[in-house]
Amino acid sequence: MTDTLPPCPDCGSAFTYQVDALLNCPECGHEWQAVEETATEIRDSVGNLLADGDTVTVIKDLKVKGSSAVVKVGTKVRNIRLVGGDHDIDCKLPGIGQMGLKSQFVKKAAD
């Protein structure tokens, strides 16, 4: 199976494996998309085109479902990953952890 998958772009390991739509490297832990999805454009609240790895800023206080935590306005989220579905951004929020966000509640941050 590893002969058909590309090597890891970070460390060059040939031992990559696939989980759902992502390719994973067991040696360095890097994850990347097997196929670029260009059919769907995801834009932020002001119309800027978003891409994997972008940094965004939350523009509205957001309640975290199932907890009493709140994501405050101005929270910077780094290295987003775009996915399909209602919540089209997967990310790790500081102090909260892994979470899905809607692109209508974020604005692309200047790097």
TrEMBL record:
InterPro entries associated with the record: YjdM (IPR004624), YjdM_C (IPR013988), YjdM_N (IPR013987)
A Pfam family per the record: Zn_Ribbon_YjdM
Protein YjdM N-terminal domain span: 4-33
Domain Protein YjdM C-terminal per the UniProt entry, residue ranges: 42-109
Family, similarity comment: Belongs to the YjdM family.
Name of the featured protein: Zinc ribbon domain-containing protein YjdM
